[in-house]
């Protein structure tokens, strides 16, 4: 669901594993059929399960076919290396070559697509109560009036190590678990699906959430340059694109500035400010100006900042974040989200959510310097996971005795973070930034449009980090207008917020419609 935790980010061993020696082919099967003769190969079998459904959205009935299961992936020696899990929803009837198709996934790394699938994208949606703990059954689903299936066919992707996707045969986790390995394998899956289902002529879109933004930046470039597959558009939901500007707590000053505005919106939401303005938006414009024009220059000066400049910054930090200047002073003007969320309401025994800072829960350890759990995750995950598993096995008729991996710690802890940027001369850059790949893809394909959704209460991928990356994209001026940013008064998964759901659907539908002609 989100980018890796700070502990993981700081301890990750940056290994170069690559996929340069692999190429991919894929085979799907009819329901429960095998991919190889059991007598010759006893590796796990790829299976798909097909079912017919109908949904009514905006008063219009839509018949569609759901295909859920796994695709067999092989290397260039025709040896099985993975089963790649997916769920496809395709409208029945009509000419498919003119029908848009969208591929979507979450992030992690190590997250399945169940969050997007059951939160907003699929034809069924988990019944979740916003700002409440969804941990008491029964756990139900409803027809999703906010699904995109009335505007585009949809393929939900579970990267290797998540969902039912896993390495098999000659494949190993290291072949898939890394920035570049992941980009290559996901791109290959998209190409194989398009080829096997005769969708090359269709308008194509890719949507990625959180670390899925890092993936999508690379995928857009990989598809274009390696497969000559041009995308009509990409959608980045609460995206994480750049390690250096998107991770506070790694002794780089830029992210501290980028996080400050979401610290401020969080303190505003929880009434933790000494002088709280009535409206959020004018307040955020004021904080943005402070962060850019006062805070950032002082951090840049380091020890050369004067006592007066430091005092001005400390006063502003307390004013805008609700955390005392004395605490900021001890932190040397720099604070990551873990410390902020623990400190903001420590005196009330309350911890604040990271994925969505509107959420709060009991502070389990009042002496801890950082939060020990995320109140948002514990409130949302039980209901969503239960609803998804019930839906997947009962309505889509997927038969498996394996656990569906919602999130995999094994994938995250073994992730190879290095990335070969298009401009790095083949060198693996240790701090990945696929905004570079995205800039190249936009320049090479100036008709590709970009939609970005970002939440004001997201401290996993704060909106300031997103705006910073977009403002620094090295692209020609004439295509900068290809980027649209929508902000929501919600968190990382803004589509859980009832007030944001209609906007999310309309914005996405309009984007698909306007860029499919």
TrEMBL record:
One GO MF term: serine-type carboxypeptidase activity
SUPFAM superfamilies listed in its UniProt record: alpha/beta-Hydrolases
Endpoints of the signal sequence: 1-25
Gene3D superfamilies for the chain: alpha/beta hydrolase (3.40.50.1820)
Keyword terms of this UniProt record: Carboxypeptidase, Hydrolase, Protease, Signal
GO biological process: proteolysis
Protein name stated in the entry: Carboxypeptidase
Species assigned in the record: Sapientia aquatica
């Amino acid at each position: 669901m989100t980018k890796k935790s700070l502990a993981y980010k700081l301890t990750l061993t940056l290994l170069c594993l690559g996929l340069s020696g692999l190429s991919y082919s894929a085979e799907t099967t009819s329901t429960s059929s095998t991919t190889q003769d059991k007598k010759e190969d006893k590796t796990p079998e790829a299976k798909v399960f097909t079912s017919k459904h109908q949904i009514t959205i905006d008063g219009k009935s839509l018949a569609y076919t759901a295909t859920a299961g796994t695709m067999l992936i092989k290397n260039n020696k025709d040896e099985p290396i993975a089963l790649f899990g997916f769920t496809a929803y395709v409208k029945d009837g009509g000419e498919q070559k003119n029908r848009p198709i969208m591929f979507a996934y979450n992030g992690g790394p190590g997250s399945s697509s169940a969050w997007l699938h059951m939160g907003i994208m699929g034809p069924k949606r988990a019944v979740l109560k916003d700002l409440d703990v969804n941990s008491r059954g029964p756990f139900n689903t409803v027809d999703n009036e906010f699904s995109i299936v009335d505007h585009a066919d949809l393929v939900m992707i579970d990267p290797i190590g998540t969902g039912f996707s896993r390495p098999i045969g000659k494949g190993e986790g290291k072949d898939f678990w890394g920035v570049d390995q992941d980009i290559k394998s996901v791109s290959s899956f998209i190409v194989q699906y398009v080829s096997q289902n005769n969708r090359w002529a269709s308008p194509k879109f890719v949507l990625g959430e959180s670390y899925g933004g890092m993936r999508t930046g690379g995928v857009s470039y990989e598809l274009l340059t390696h497969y000559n597959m041009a995308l009509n558009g990409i959608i980045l939901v609460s995206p994480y694109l750049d390690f250096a500007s998107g991770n506070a707590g790694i002794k780089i000053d830029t992210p501290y500035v980028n996080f400050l505005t979401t610290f401020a919106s969080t303190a505003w939401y929880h009434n933790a400010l000494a002088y709280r303005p009535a409206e959020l938006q004018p307040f955020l414009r004021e904080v943005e100006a402070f962060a850019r024009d006062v805070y950032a220059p002082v951090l840049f000066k380091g020890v050369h900042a004067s006592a007066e400049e430091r005092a001005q910054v400390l006063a502003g930090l307390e004013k805008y974040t609700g955390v005392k200047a004395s605490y900021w002073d001890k932190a040397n003007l720099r604070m990551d989200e873990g410390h902020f969320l623990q400190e903001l309401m420590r005196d009330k025994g309350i911890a604040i959510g990271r994925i969505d800072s509107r959420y709060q829960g009991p502070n389990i350890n009042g002496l801890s310097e950082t939060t020990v759990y995320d109140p948002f995750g514990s409130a949302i995950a039980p209901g969503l996971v239960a609803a998804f598993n019930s839906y997947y096995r009962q309505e889509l008729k997927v038969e498996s005795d394996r656990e569906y991996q919602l999130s995999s710690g094994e994938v995250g802890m073994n992730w190879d973070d290095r990335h070969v940027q298009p401009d790095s001369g083949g060198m693996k850059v240790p701090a990945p930034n696929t905004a570079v790949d995205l800039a190249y893809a936009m320049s090479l394909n100036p008709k590709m449009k970009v939609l970005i959704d970002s939440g004001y209460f997201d401290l996993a991928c704060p909106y300031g980090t997103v705006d910073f990356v977009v403002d620094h994209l090295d692209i020609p001026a004439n295509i900068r207008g290809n980027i649209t940013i929508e902000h929501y008064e919600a968190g990382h998964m803004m589509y859980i917020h009832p007030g944001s759901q209609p906007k999310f659907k309309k914005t996405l539908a309009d984007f698909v419609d306007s860029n499919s002609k």
